[in-house]
Design brief:
907 residues, Immunoglobulin-like, Jelly Rolls, eight-stranded antiparallel sheet, eight-stranded parallel barrel, 23% helix
């Protein structure tokens, strides 16, 4: 039996061995060649076996190959005898494919696809000018120069099949027309025809600007779509060469200067391959060399930063919902901060870097605090001293915290915090405030001159008029509530139109957002900026066009300024007068007298309009309750002084703000007129799909320049707008010339829109005002509550008994019929009026300021008071006597009842 088992085992073993010998060894998995990188890399001395590679699922040895540039194949094998790029065209049936075999030395790390050091004129043979003149190119001293207003040059089409590559360019930028001019490395460019779409890495002369380095697309519509921007540590030195690097791999793109990573893009899949080239925009691009190598992996990305705070969504019907802020003054405040979380909590911070209560008792370390907040609440800190700021700045640097603020009455501490870390936002606390015009201008100056944009103002005396005055001067207003909170105090804060409210009882405050408002209610006016006036109906940047813009409903007019050869500030968009006048020439090369020879091109039947000066604007509009955004278009360093001198001469400081793409000009403006707000014009800092990362970019930009955020209206979302407002950053996008887009985003609560078509809002109501001059209603007295609605064009509609009045507190003290209110109890009543209007075909409500009246006292002396028996003085006197008699009888009856009850109890 045992022998039988052994024999069976032996036979089974032999069978398995025999079977194994008959089976072929498993083949190594073939390497797939991608369409975006149709290349095989090899070292000198290697043998490349095409059967080990596939393209589109087909083994390469199944193609029929034809050499393109001298390489040879031995069957399906290639002997890599020396360095170089060997190109073969393959065909299999209807399928064709161009293969590149790139050979390097064994001790090298990169597979070089293309290289040019521009040693002599023959290097130009590789270049094709696709925009501009051939004469724009020249070679001298081993360097390529590309000079012109707009010149595009492409490298050989042979490499157009590639999309995955690394491009290293040694270059510099010279002779820019202004500091915003740029050069670029184009890649994945359409190989023929119009040569666009394409991608590019653009580098501005002032590379320190927030958009000093860009990743941009040229779209099929031949327009720019700037997806990513960054700032380099220095402006481009024309006497210094830099290494600019682009790494592209599938949907990933990185851009670097001197190996410093500046831009990292993902999901960039609309362009998968194409040619490489250069572009010069109003400058000279000087190229020492270019090298293109194979990129076989995803490029290294930046270190992952901690996510910004994702503020919870408030339950609200208000389109302009204010952000909600709380002070943490007690241990109970600290423990409850994650219940009904505010957007921002302001903590006290001591010299040891610990969070304390108002008495100085330590509540938590910064580590403990941030662990508690769980990235749900933005932390702001009220530091005791510079030591506290040092502790905060060190902690933020260690933990890479970029979403933080310092709030203080001491502006020196705010400035000190900024010096330690420019990303620490500034909030100025005002324990008391003067709300006269002079006082409001002092508030603006204190904020602007001290690295802040937010003012926390005291409750006493706050009004919609006060808040709107500061908002038009680009100050973010948060209103601090009183110690004794109620629906009336919350609604006073909300209806003031404040950008933020500081409250303790957050649940009660949030309840007001829905309880007292219909959906799409506006507590803050959305401001309209007439872009160069009203260019759809008048010459752009003209006095005539600006008049029409104001009449159509613009709250603000934007203009662009340059300086003439003889020092006059000229209003015009372009650097030349060629496009908009009947003349030609550069503004800054002409005198004012020379410019006055020409007139603006006729638009809307307006002919013969003169080229205006900034002084003309001040003379014409200085007396109006309107504002001007002065765009510092020219980069001329001599522009700012005459502009500021004019502002001082015509007392226009309370009616102007500066905006500019040129950050050098913003810095000059802040140096010469630190009280005047500035807005940083930019594009491409945001990404619709990454709202919080877009907020990070906006924080960096606005903190760099102490500015508002004035980006073009692309790459944004409602979430981005809301999250930005929670940081106290106001948003002023441009230029809205598509009505459906403005209509949609108006309801996001954006602070103000720049548009060529201010007339789109002409008939929409922007405000409701209480017109009755009363502050009390006497006992039994009735008054008419007169409200009026005002359109953007300042047309008034008296609402009369159609006024929709919403009572907040004290409803038991009055009766209300239409707009007639009668006092029936002693105390007070608070209310507001909302008015239903429409923008295009969409309904919305605009809201008045809160009104609070005392009731049941001596009554109102105003003529708006209405007595039910006031036909004649005699009748009124008789009614008083009657009521006195009734009162005496009532008192006697009550007294008798009390006495009777007492006797009964005694018995």
């Amino acid at each position: 039996m045992k022998n039988g088992k052994r024999l069976s085992a032996l036979l089974l073993t032999l069978l398995l061995v025999f079977t194994a010998l008959q089976l072929p060894a498993a083949a190594e998995e073939a390497t797939a060649i991608s369409a975006a990188s149709p290349a095989i890399g090899a070292d000198v001395g290697d043998t490349v076996d095409l059967s080990a590679y596939t393209y589109g699922g087909t083994a390469l040895d199944e193609f029929t190959w034809t050499p393109v540039n001298g390489g040879t194949l031995d069957g399906a094998e290639f002997e890599a005898a020396e360095k170089g790029v060997y190109v073969f065209d393959g065909v299999k049936g209807d399928e064709s494919f161009r293969l590149f075999i790139v050979v390097k030395a064994a001790d090298e790390t990169e597979y070089v696809l293309y290289e040019n050091t521009f040693d002599d004129e023959s290097a130009l043979d590789d270049l094709t000018v696709v925009e501009g003149a051939e004469s724009a190119l020249s070679i001298a001293d081993g360097k390529l120069s590309i000079k012109g207003t707009s010149v595009r040059v492409l490298l050989p089409e042979l490499y157009a099949d590639f999309g995955n590559y690394k491009i290293d360019v040694e270059a510099t930028l010279q002779n820019p027309s202004d500091s915003s001019r740029w050069m670029s490395i184009m890649f994945r460019a359409t190989p023929s025809g119009l040569y666009y779409p394409y991608y590019q890495m653009a580098i501005r002369s002032n590379a320190t600007a927030a958009n000093g380095v860009e990743f941009a697309r040229r779209t099929p519509a031949n327009a720019w779509d700037v997806a990513y921007t960054s700032a380099y540590k220095e402006a481009i030195d024309p006497n210094k060469f830099y290494k600019f690097t682009v790494c592209a791999y599938d949907g990933y793109v990185s851009e670097s200067i001197n190996d410093e990573l500046l831009i990292y893009g993902r999901e960039l899949t609309d362009r998968t391959a194409g040619r490489v080239g250069f572009q010069a925009n109003n400058c000279t691009m000087v190229v020492d060399s270019i090298k293109i190598t194979l990129q076989n992996d995803i490029p290294d990305g930046p270190p992952q930063k901690p996510a910004l705070v994702n503020v919870r969504d408030f339950n609200t019907n208000i389109a302009t919902t204010p952000t909600m802020v709380s002070f943490v003054e007690t241990e109970a405040d600290y423990n409850g901060i994650t219940t009904d979380e505010p957007a921002t909590a302001i903590f006290r911070l001591n010299d040891e870097g610990k969070v304390t209560d108002a008495e100085g008792k330590a509540l938590a370390t910064l580590d403990e605090l941030y662990a508690k907040l769980e990235n749900k609440v933005i932390a702001a800190f009220n530091p005791t001293s510079e030591k506290a700021v040092d502790a905060l700045a060190a902690y933020c640097e260690e933990k890479v915290i970029e979403d933080v603020a310092v709030a203080s009455t001491d502006v020196e501490l705010i400035n000190y915090a900024y010096e330690q870390n420019y990303l620490i936002r500034g909030i100025v606390l005002f324990e008391e405030a003067d709300y006269s015009e002079e006082g409001l201008l002092a508030i603006r100056e204190k904020v602007n001159a001290n690295h802040a944009k937010v003012a926390i103002l005291p409750y006493e005396g706050i009004s919609k008029e006060v808040v709107e005055y500061l908002q038009k001067l680009l100050v973010t207003v948060w209103v601090n509530g009183p110690e004794a909170e109620s629906d009336t105090t919350f609604m006073t804060q909300i209806l003031s139109g404040a950008n933020g409210i500081v409250v303790s009882d957050r649940a009660a405050a949030e309840k007001c957002f829905t309880e007292y408002f219909e959906e799409n209610s506006f507590t803050r006016q959305i401001l309209i900026i007439g872009h160069r006036g009203l260019p759809s109906k008048a010459p752009e940047n003209s006095i005539e066009g600006s008049k029409l813009a104001y009449e159509a409903g613009a709250d603000i007019v934007e203009n662009d300024v340059y300086i003439s050869k003889d020092g006059v500030v000229i209003v015009m968009h372009d650097g030349t007068i060629d496009r908009t006048t009947n003349g030609t020439g550069y503004i800054e090369s002409m005198t004012y007298e020379q410019l006055q020879q020409y007139t603006l091109n006729a638009v809307g039947g307006i002919e013969g309009a003169k080229i205006p000066t900034l002084e003309d604007y001040f003379k014409e509009f200085g007396s109006l309750d309107k504002h001007i955004f002065i765009e510092l278009k020219s980069g001329n360093q001599n522009l700012l002084k005459p502009v500021v001198d004019l502002i001082r001469e015509y007392d226009m400081s309370s009616k102007v703000n500066f905006i500019s793409f040129d950050t050098n000009q913003l810095a000059r403006a802040q140096a010469l007129a630190p009280e005047i707000s500035v807005g940083y014009l930019c594009s491409g800092l945001t990404n619709t799909n990454e709202p919080l990362e877009s907020v990070r970019a906006a924080i960096s930009a606005t903190q760099h320049y102490g500015s508002t955020f004035n980006q073009s209206g692309s790459g944004i979302s409602e979430e981005f707008v809301t999250e930005l407002s929670h940081r106290g950053i106001t948003f002023w996008p441009w230029t809205y010339n598509t009505q459906p887009t403005l209509l949609e985003q108006y309801f996001w609560g954006i602070n103000g829109f720049t548009t060529d078509y201010a007339s789109w809002v002409t008939d929409t109501a922007k405000s409701v005002k209480f017109q009755s001059d009363i502050d009390a209603i006497g006992a039994g007295q009735s008054v008419q509550l007169d409200f009026s609605a005002f359109t953007y064009a300042d047309e008034e509609t008296a609402l009369g008994d159609k006024a929709e009045i919403v009572i907040i507190d004290g409803g038991d003290n009055v009766t209300l019929e239409g707009n007639t209110m009668t006092a029936k109890g002693e105390g007070s009543v608070s209310f507001y009026c909302r008015y239903k209007t429409s923008l295009s075909n969409r309904s919305l409500y605009v809201c008045s300021d809160i009104v609070t009246l005392t009731t049941g006292g001596a009554g109102a002396e105003s003529s708006t008071a209405v007595s039910e028996s006031s036909e004649t003085p005699g009748t009124a006197d008789n009614s008083v006597i009657i009521w006195v008699v009734i009162g005496v009888i009532a008192v006697a009856a009550i007294a008798g009842g009390v006495i009777a009850a007492a006797k009964k109890k005694k018995a």
